[in-house]
Amino acid sequence: MSGRACPQALYTSASRTLEGPGFGVYAHSADWPAEVGRTRKALGALVGFRPADGEAYGVLCRGTGRVLYRAVAARADGFGRPGNYLVHLLWDPSGRLGARELLALRRAGRFLDALPEDSSPTPELPPLRVAAADRPAPALTPDEVDALTPPLAGLLATLARGAGSCALPVRTASGREVAEVLVAVLPRALTAGVSLQAGTREDDGDTAPVRVQLTDSPAPAPAGPHDTERARTLLEAASKAELAPDDLADLRRLDAWLFADAWAEQDAAALSADQVASVLESSAAPGWLARGSNAAVALEVAAGSPVVEAGLRAAVDRWPAVGELVRGRVLAALLDEVFDGAEGPAELFVEIAGIGQRDLCAALADEVRRGRRVARLDRAAGLLVEQALTLGVDLPLLGLTGETWELALLATRRPVVGDALVAQWRSGGGWTGEHGALLGHLLVADPGWLARLGDAVPVSALPPALRWAALRLDVAGVGALAEAVATGDSAGRGWALREVVFGSELPAGDVEQVLGRRLELLLVDDGWPREVAEAFARSRGDSPFRRRRRAD
Fold it and tell me: Looking at residue 545, what is its pLDDT?
């Protein structure tokens, strides 16, 4: 048969054992582990008793392995001595065999009741091959469900604590074997750390965190309401041939299997964190998250609950619809932060949604194209704009924000923004009021914009923009702007003097400072012949501007 080859050992009273006459190890496999024991002394409490009721059996943990055993009373030995017994032990080094296999071996009669007639002591006993036990769904009547609910609830309560012991009756009043039903109903992974023993229990070195003792005592006292609900629901499902999957390794996942559909009928705000996590792991998650504020509440709960965070991440990965839903909500919150200054989502939410910088930048561009504007172009928003353009996102700048001055500063200080603005300005469909408003701010930020934009600015739009900018500049700024006009594509129209120097409405003394630096250049721009302008500039000591200052 297929299965695991388990080393075995036999302990008994016989006319001859490996240790001599009397009680001792009669036989063991060659690879029976020395750490479990190969002598009566080493095996200790595993073999040191005669079963009081004719039989004892169990499975216990020893490190990473498992010991499965059965002890039975035996007839008198060859010398007529009473009180004999036989202990048949199996060793599973993988630790994967458990109570199901123990009960299946016992049920199939594969544990020995007596030594074979023609046997002799040997340290070369062949291993016994043990297959994983089948898991048939028990057929249960309503009365049996009622009888089995208290012992199963008691075991579930012990599992919930993570450690401890639990006493269960061997049979119900109707004769149903409790352990047989419970190991079929409970997932294998959930009971991986459970040992089971029927009969006398001594200090046998069991390292299992949860120990179950089968006794003839009545059923344990009622467990808590949730464990009782779990137990009844599990048994009712089993009676319909519905068994929880064997890979459910904790009670929260078991609850998800049992109750997620019912919890999915409720809003997230009414559920505990574990219940939210259970719904997220169920097939009801997509529809539940799409309803009302459930997605928003689940995200908030995830911030303080690792199990909800894990469940939400798994749901995003498992269902594209959930991923799009969570992504949409988090992205909307990020955009509200950028455009309106609202409080943004937690970094954890962004991570769960899987939103990268490029995703946010592309969404920002889409919103701007739809007409939405950034209310405050602060440092964070400015960095996002710069990042978007660096990534090659086609982000419209002219319709980005009503904070024209902040946009002008950003375009002036950040080369990638400035280059994109020039490119969009030149490729635009025509001059608009936004162009005019932004042009004035750009000239205040840096007169060099006049040369950068060049012929992309209509001639008719330049004078009012120059005058608007000049009114907002200091003496040095007016001088720089005037020089840019006089040396740029618009030179020769007299705008440097008329729109900038005199349009600035600076005090006469400040105007003279501006004129004193580049008077010849400004006069030539105003249409004066160069030689006349040069002569006038040389004689500016007697200029009417100086005389007016002395008169003042």
Answer: 45
Q: Which residues of the chain have pLDDT under 70?
A: 1-2, 75-83, 201, 217-222, 429-430, 540-552
* Predicted local confidence at residue 54, as pLDDT: 79
pLDDT score recorded for residue 196: 95
DSSP letters, 332-361, are HHHHHHHHH-PPPPPHHHHHHHT--HHHHH
């240790």: which residue's tokens?
Answer: 19
Q: Render the burial of 266-277: b for 16+ CB within 10 Å, e for the rest.
A: eebeebebbbbb
Pair 231, 257 in one domain = no
The number of domains in the chain is 4
Cβ neighbours for 398, distance < 8 A, ≥ 6 positions apart: 421, 424, 425, 428, 432, 434, 435, 438
CB count in 10 Å sphere of residue 440 = 21
Helix (H) or strand (E) holding 90: strand 85-92
- 366 - beta bridge partners? none
The pLDDT, as a whole number, for residue 546 is 46
315 is written with which tokens? Answer: 């749901």
Q: CA 111, CA 100: separation in Å to the nearest integer?
A: 14
Phi then psi dihedrals of residue 169, to 5 deg:
-70, 150
Distance, CA of 206 to CA of 59 (rounded, Å): 9
Instruction: Report how far apart, in Å, the C-alpha atoms of 153 and of each of 72, 235, 272 are.
Output: 31, 11, 21
> CA-to-CA distance for 45 and 133, rounded, in angstroms?
27
| Last-in-domain residue among 214, 239, 264 | 239
Cβ proximity of 287 and 280 under 8 Å: no
- Predicted pLDDT at 429: 66
Phi and psi dihedrals of 209, rounded to 5? Answer: -70, -30
Domain with 165, as residue range(s), is 142-239
> What distances in angstroms separate CA 270 from CA 261, 282, 306, 349, one per listed residue?
15, 18, 19, 21
Boundary of a domain, candidates 292, 310, 325: 325
| 388 is a domain residue | no
Strands lying side by side in the sheet with 85-92: 20-28, 8-17, 85-92, 65-73, 55-62, 194-198, 210-215, 164-169
Residue 295 shares a structural domain with residue 194: no
| Gyration radius from the chain CA atoms | 44
